[in-house]
């Protein structure tokens, strides 16, 4: 018998054995134990200067990772100078510090294999720094200069501004970003949240504005620091005390008043014309903030509607069954201090825009009128509970998340009780929260592209049509 025939016979014997034996269980019948999750204890303490610390020791690797937050982001941008917080973050990183110019800062960090990034969001400026524990003292000396003695050299500020302006120019070529900016500027109209950076506002920012912002925001009483890695509390305090001990507070937080939102605008159809083969479709309304009691039921309802990817109703109906869009989604964005936004969106052919809008609104109305099935409810809750665990892949994610939640005023037991509160949501709660919070008739429709007959769609929806330029 040749080698090939021997292999063939042996394979046939194995195959017959598999057929004769028990078939493996179907994947749908498999049962898995619930994922365990226990938050490690975070060491919280505060220096006399007011700096709040969140420490998680982790000696697995000789590394230390630090995230620093200062209250003050784009919510603080002055009128006519939207983008100040973001430009400040970029210029702070690339504008030199202490006796070092920008290149010297980069070389000093590179010499100890350290990494530093600085960004700004709506309510905070954030620094993330990582370094080997043996070089932490030298690294923190550099960070102290960045925090306390920024230079904002002219060439660094100019480079940061040019990058900002170039990013704004490129955004006009991304329909999804154009739609998102139109959504924000419309639904937050009349509030600083709706004042988005533009070429004009970024060009109006001067070095004096950067210095003033830095002086107003960067002080120890307004500083939060999450630290993880190969360091203990005693060593950390001894290291930082001499770097911060003469840093004085010039004001007492909170430094900025967050103004309430004005009344929501009347719904309409907003068209941003672009000569494209497909149209970006976004329905939007104001949503909720972190303290809203509907938070957990909304998480479940939103998963079923559109945030559950291929398990969601929008994806099943619009993509899987009808092939009208490659991607379709919904999302309730929870606001940290003010209500966030609810958005539902898709990209589809110009000729099918009206049908996609009709189907999106139909699925929302269905969620408002009928209880979800037991299978949908179970899948949504299990997915949310299990995915929650993977948000804490390493010690720094745990400690930085703990800091952020404290920074924004979440209850101390938020993380501990999150899964139980999701598990407690039932079909009645989903129905009731959809009826209260999901309001298709009050949603503004944003279209970026060249849809067929937007005037007819406007008439069908009973909302005025407004044509606008990209924000």
Automatic annotation (TrEMBL):
UniProt cross-references to InterPro entries, sorted A to Z: Metalloenz_LuxS/M16, MPP/UQCRC_Complex, Pept_M16_N, Peptidase_M16_C
Keyword annotations from UniProtKB, A to Z: Coiled coil, Signal
Regions annotated as coiled coil: 350-377
GO MF, any single term: metal ion binding
Source species, domain of life: Bacteria
Residue span, Peptidase M16 N-terminal domain: 54-194
Every Peptidase M16 C-terminal domain range: 205-384
Pfam families (alphabetical): Peptidase_M16, Peptidase_M16_C
Residues of the signal peptide: 1-22
Protein's recorded name: Peptidase M16 domain protein
Provenance organism: Syntrophotalea acetylenica
Lineage of the organism: Bacteria, Pseudomonadati, Thermodesulfobacteriota, Desulfuromonadia, Desulfuromonadales
């Amino acid at each position: 018998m040749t080698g090939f025939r021997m292999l063939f016979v042996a394979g046939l014997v194995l195959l017959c054995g598999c057929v004769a034996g028990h078939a493996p269980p179907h994947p749908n019948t498999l049962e898995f134990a619930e994922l365990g999750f226990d938050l490690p204890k975070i060491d919280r303490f505060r220096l006399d200067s007011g700096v709040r610390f969140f420490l998680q020791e982790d000696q697995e690797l000789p590394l230390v990772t630090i995230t620093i937050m200062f209250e003050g982001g784009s919510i603080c941008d002055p009128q006519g100078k939207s983008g100040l917080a973001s430009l400040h973050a970029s210029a702070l990183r690339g504008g030199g510090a202490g006796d070092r110019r920008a290149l010297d800062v980069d070389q000093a960090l590179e010499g100890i294999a350290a990494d530093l990034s600085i960004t700004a969001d709506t309510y905070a400026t954030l620094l993330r720094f990582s370094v080997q524990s043996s070089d932490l003292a030298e690294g923190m000396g550099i960070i102290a200069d960045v925090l306390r003695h920024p230079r904002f050299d002219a060439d660094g500020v100019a480079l940061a501004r040019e990058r900002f302006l170039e990013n704004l120019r490129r955004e006009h070529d991304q329909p999804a970003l154009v739609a998102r900016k139109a959504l924000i500027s419309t639904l937050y109209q009349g509030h600083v949240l709706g004042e988005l950076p533009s070429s004009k506002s970024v060009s109006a920012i001067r070095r004096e504005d950067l210095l003033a912002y830095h002086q107003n925001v960067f002080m120890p009483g307004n500083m939060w620091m999450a630290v993880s890695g190969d360091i203990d509390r005693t060593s950390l305090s001894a290291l930082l005390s001499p770097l911060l001990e003469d840093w004085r507070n010039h004001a007492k937080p909170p430094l900025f008043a967050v103004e309430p939102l004005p009344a929501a605008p009347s719904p309409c159809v907003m068209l941003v014309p672009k000569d494209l083969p497909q149209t970006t479709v976004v329905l939007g309304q104001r949503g909720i903030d972190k303290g809203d009691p509907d938070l957990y039921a909304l998480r479940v309802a939103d998963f079923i509607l559109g945030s559950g990817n291929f398990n969601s109703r929008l994806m099943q109906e619009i993509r899987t069954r009808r092939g009208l869009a490659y991607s379709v989604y919904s999302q309730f964005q929870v606001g940290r201090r003010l209500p966030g936004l609810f958005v539902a969106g898709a990209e589809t052919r110009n000729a099918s825009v009206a049908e996609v809008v009709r189907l999106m609104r139909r699925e929302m109305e269905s969620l408002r009128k009928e209880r979800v099935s037991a299978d949908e409810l179970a899948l949504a809750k299990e997915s949310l509970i299990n995915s929650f665990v993977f948000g804490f892949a390493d010690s720094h994610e745990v400690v930085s998340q703990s800091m952020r939640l404290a920074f924004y005023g979440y209850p101390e037991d938020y993380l501990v009780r999150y899964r139980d509160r999701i598990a407690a949501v039932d079909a009645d709660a989903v129905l009731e929260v959809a009826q209260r919070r999901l309001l298709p008739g009050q949603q503004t429709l944003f279209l970026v592209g060249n849809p067929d007959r937007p005037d007819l769609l406007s008439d069908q929806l009973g909302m005025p049509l407004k044509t606008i330029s990209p924000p």
